[in-house]
Amino acid sequence: MCRASLPFSATWKLYLERNSRCNVFRRIGTAGSTWWSPQCAAVRQGIVDMMHRALREPEVKSVVICGQDGKFCGGADIREFGAKMSGPPLVPMIHMIEAAAKPVVAAIEGVALGGGLELALSCHYRIAHSKARLGLPEVTLGLLPGAGGTQRLPRLIGVPAALELITTGRHVTAAEALQLGIVDEVTDQNAVDAAVKFAQSVEGKSLDARRIGTFPCPRPPDLDAVFEKVMKEVRRSARGAIAPVTCVQAVHAAVTLPYAKGMERERELFSTLFTSGQARALQYYFFAQRAVSRWSTPSGARWDTSKPRPVRKAAVIGLGTMGRGISVSLAQAGFSVVAVETQEKQLLEAKQAVSGMLERDAKRRGAPLAHGNIKYSCSLKAAADVDLVIEAVFEDMALKKAIFRQLSAICKPGTFLCSNTSALDIDELASQTQSPELVVGMHFFAPAHVMKLLEVVYGPRSSPEAVATAMQMGKKIGKVSVAVGNCRGFVGNRMLKPYLEQAFFLLEEGATPEQVDQVLEEFGFPMGVFKVSDLSGLDVGWKVRKADGLVVPDSTGKSARIQGGRRYSPLGDLLCEQGRFGQKTGRGWYQYDKPGGRVAKSDPWLHRFLEEYRARHGLVARRIDQQEVLERCLYALINEGFQILQDGIAAGPEDIDVIYVLGYGWPRHRGGPMFFADMVGLDKVLDRLERYHQLHPDVPGLKPCSLLRKLAAGGCPPIHRWREVIQKPHSQL
Ligand SMILES: CCCCCCCCCCCCC[C@H](O)CC(=O)SCCNC(=O)CCNC(=O)[C@H](O)C(C)(C)COP(=O)(O)OP(=O)(O)OC[C@H]1O[C@@H](n2cnc3c(N)ncnc32)[C@H](O)[C@@H]1OP(=O)(O)O
Ligand SMILES: NC(=O)c1ccc[n+]([C@@H]2O[C@H](COP(=O)([O-])OP(=O)(O)OC[C@H]3O[C@@H](n4cnc5c(N)ncnc54)[C@H](O)[C@@H]3O)[C@@H](O)[C@H]2O)c1
C-alpha cells in the first residue's frame, strides 16, 4: 500500500491510500469545516484533483470518501458564509462525483449533515456506522440544502419523507436512514473498512441505477393537494420563518421540473434565503447558543478556569409543578434523586405524577424507564447525603429561608444548595446557610422536563465552583444553561415586567387583548402576552404585586393608577379580584369552555369591563396601530435588556437572546430581542423609545437606558462588538 499525502492546509489533508485492489480516497477534516474557506477550497480542489486522478489511473477501481476522527462532514462552515468564494464550486464537484465511471462510496461515521449529506448523496453508495446521524439542517440556519439536497433526497426517499426532513432539519439515526433508503448498509464495525469492502464488491458493476440525479422524482398522484397541505402546515408551524416555506418550493421544483432545471431553481431559492435577515438571525443564534457555555461573571470567574464538582445524587425539595419536572429531568439523565414533599398525600400524588411522566417519556423515546433512580421522602433529612439540592417550594421567601437554614444543617459539608426561585434574592437565601459560597439559583422553566433553558443565578457570594457545577449539571440534563447575575427576576423575568406593563397600558389606552396578542403572534411568538398570562395563571403575578405592596386601592376606592410617581395599571389585579385567574378558572383575559379549558375565546364581559374601567378613570380609548403595539411592548423589553447588560447581570447580548428564544418563545428567526434591536437599528430603537417616553413620562421603562444611548452615539456598532462598549460594574462576586 502506498500513501500519498497532499500538501494542503494543516486542518484538511488528503490521502490516497492505495493497494492492489482498491484505492481509498480519504477526505480528512473536522465537522463543520467549510466548503468556502481557504481550507475548504483546498479540500474541494483536492477532491476534484483526486477524483480526476482516480478516474484516470486504470489500477484504481473504486473510491471511498470518509472523514477524519470518526466524523464524515457537518456541512458548510457558516462562519465563512459571505467570505469570497474560491476554489472549485461545490455543485459541479458533486455532479462530477455522481457522474464518475467508477463506484464512489461514502463511509459515514459521526455526522453527515447539510453539505456533508449532499456530498454523500452524490456518491453511488452510502455505508453508515450505526452511531452516525444524518440530516439536512440548513432550514434551522435560515437556508435550504443548496448542493442538490432538495433535488436528490425526494428522488431517493420520496416526496413526503424528504419534505419532512428538509423542512424540519431533523437528524435521523443510521437505522432510520437505512429504513428510509438514505443509506445502503449500516455497520457496527469500522465504517471505512466496511465501505472499502463494499466498494470492492461493486467494482465493475453498472452504476446506471446508482446516480440519484438521474432518477425520476416520484410524483404523488394528488401532487397539488399534497403540496397545498404541506405548505399550509409548514406556514402554520413556521410562524413567519421563510426558510421552511422556501424548502417546500424547492422540493416542488424537484417533482415538477427536470433535474437540471430543478437545480437551477434550488440555487435561485438558496440565493434568496442566503441574503435574508432571517438567515443572519438564525446563524447568529446558532453561535449564541454555543457562546453561552463560555460563561463569565463580573468578578472574573470563567468557564475555562472554574472546575465543576461531580454530582451523583441530588435532592429536589417540593414536588409541585416544577419539582416534578426537575425530578424527571434528573432521573432521565441518570442522577440518583431524593424527592421530598411535606406530607404523605402530596408525596403520593407527586410520585404518581412523576412515574406517569417518566413512563410516557420512555414510551415516546423508546428508552428504558428511569424509575429506580428516584427515592421519595417526607423528610428533609433524606437529603443528608446528596451532592446538590434543588429547592422548588412555593415562591415564599420566609419558607425558602427556613428550608435553606435546615438544609444547611442537614446536608453533608460541601453540598450545593440551589433554588428554583423565579425572582427572589439568591443572596438572602445564601445568608441563611453556613456556606453561602455553595448557593446558586437554578431557574428552570415550565414544563421543567421539556423546556431547554436553565438560568444559573450566581449571587455575590456564589463560588466559581458552584456556578460551574450548576452549569455542568444543566448540560448533563440536556438544558442550555445561561449564567446570570442576581437581581429581581434575573434576566428573563426582569425583562418581562416592562413588556407586560406596556401590554396593560395599551389596554387602558384603547387596545384589546385580542389586538395585542395578534400583533405579537404575527411577529412570531407562539402566543400573545395575554394568552400566555391566562395559561400561567393571573394569580401568580397578583401574588407578587401584592407582596410588593402594589395592590393598594386609592382613597376614592378606585385602584391606584399612579404609585410612587410611576404609572401603574391595576387591570390584572381587578381581574383576579373577580376570580378570573385564566385557564384554570375558565376566565381571564379570554374565556374558556370550562376551567382548565385550552381554547381562548374573545369575552364580551372583558370588553365591557375595559370600557367601564376607562370611563371610571376618564381615559378616552384611541385607535392604536400595530406598529405602536409592537414597538411599545418589544422596545420596553429590549430597553430593560440594555439595562441588564449595563448592570452586568448578563455577560453579553447572546445570553439574553438565548434566554428569550428558549424560555419565552421569542421567534428564533428573529435572533432574540438584542439581535432584533441590532437589526432594526439602535438609533431607531432609541428614537422611538425617546418619543414614547416623552408621551409617557411617568413610565420609567420607556426611558432609554444609557448603554443604548452610548451604543447609538458610538455609531451603532454591530452586536458582536457590544461587549467592547459595555462597561461592567465592579466585582459582584
Ligand atoms: C448571494 C448568493 C449566493 C449564492 C451561492 C450559491 C452557492 C450554492 C452552494 C451552496 C452550498 C450549500 C451547502 C449546504 O447545503 C449548506 C450547509 O451545509 S449549511 C451547514 C449545515 N450543517 C449544520 O447545520 C451543522 C451544524 N452543526 C452541528 O449540528 C454540530 O455542531 C455538529 C456538527 C453535529 C457537531 O456537534 P458537537 O460535536 O456537539 O459540537 P458543537 O456543536 O459544539 O460544535 C463545535 C464547534 O464547531 C462549530 N460549528 C459546528 N457546526 C458548524 C458550522 N456548520 N459552521 C461553522 N461552525 C460550526 C460550533 O460553533 C462549535 O464552535 P464554537 O461555537 O464552540 O466555537
Ligand atoms: N410554575 C412555574 O411556571 C415556575 C417556573 C419557574 C420557577 N418557578 C418557581 O418554582 C418554585 C415552585 O413553583 P411551583 O409552580 O412548582 O409551585 P407549586 O405550588 O406547584 O409546588 C410547590 C410544592 O412545594 C411543596 N412544599 C411546600 N413547602 C414544602 C416544604 N417545606 N417541603 C417540601 N415541599 C414543600 C408544596 O406541597 C408544593 O407541592 C417557586 O419558587 C416558583 O417561583 C415556577
From TrEMBL:
Segments forming domain 3-hydroxyacyl-CoA dehydrogenase C-terminal: 489-592, 629-714
Location(s) in or outside the cell: Peroxisome
A GO MF label: NAD+ binding
GO cellular component: peroxisome
Annotated catalysed reactions: (3E)-hexenoyl-CoA = (2E)-hexenoyl-CoA; a (3Z)-enoyl-CoA = a 4-saturated (2E)-enoyl-CoA; (3S)-hydroxyhexadecanoyl-CoA = (2E)-hexadecenoyl-CoA + H2O; (3S)-hydroxyhexadecanedioyl-CoA + NAD(+) = 3-oxohexadecanedioyl-CoA + NADH + H(+)
Gene Ontology terms describing biological process: fatty acid beta-oxidation
Domain (3-hydroxyacyl-CoA dehydrogenase NAD binding) ranges: 313-486
Pfam families xref list: 3HCDH, 3HCDH_N, ECH_1
UniProt main location, coarse: other
Biological pathway: Lipid metabolism; fatty acid beta-oxidation
EC number: 1.1.1.35, 4.2.1.17, 5.3.3.8
UniProt entry keywords in alphabetical sequence: Fatty acid metabolism, Isomerase, Lipid metabolism, Lyase, Multifunctional enzyme, NAD, Oxidoreductase, Peroxisome
Superkingdom of this protein's organism: Eukaryota
Family: In the C-terminal section; belongs to the 3-hydroxyacyl-CoA dehydrogenase family. In the N-terminal section; belongs to the enoyl-CoA hydratase/isomerase family.
Alphabetized PANTHER family for the sequence: 3-HYDROXYACYL-COA DEHYROGENASE, PEROXISOMAL BIFUNCTIONAL ENZYME
Subunit structure: Monomer.
UniProt name for this protein: Peroxisomal bifunctional enzyme
Provenance organism: Cyprinodon variegatus
